[in-house]
Design a protein that fits this description.
152 residues, de novo design (two linked rop proteins), 5 helices
Amino acid sequence: MGGSSQARRAPNAAPARPRTYNLEDRLLEFAVTVIDVSEKLPNTRAGNHIAGQLLRAGPSPYGNHGEAQSAESSADFVHKMKVCLKELRETRRWARLVDRKRWLLSDSQLVFLLTEIEELIRIFVASIQTAERNRVVKQRRSIDRPNTASGD
C-alpha cells in the first residue's frame, strides 16, 4: 500500500474536497472521480484501454457495497465486501499506471483518487476482518450454549 505518487496538486488546482465519513457517500464520490479521470485520458489505443479498465473496476465498489448492505448472511456479507476490495485493488493498479505514464500530471482528481483508494482499501480490510472475527465469535457462542429450546 505504500509508495509515493508522482501526481502532485497543481498550484491552481481546485481545493481539496471536504472529508466525508459516510462510506456510501465516499464510494459514490470515488466512482464519480474514476469516471472523470477516465474521461481525461488520451484518446489513444492505450488511453482508451486503460479508461475502459478503470470504468469497469472503479465504480464497482459503490454498487457492490449496496449488495453487501443487503447480504443474506454474515458469510454473504464478507464475500461481497471481498468483491469490493478486489475491485478497489484493481482500480489502484490502473490508477497507478495512469500516474506512472504521467498522462495527468498535477491533476487534482488523480491525486484524490490515489489517496482515497488507499483509505478505502484500509477501511474494507478492517471491515472484513471485523466481520470475520464476529462470525467466529458468534459460531463459538452457539456451540458453547446448549440448546435449551428442546423443552426438557
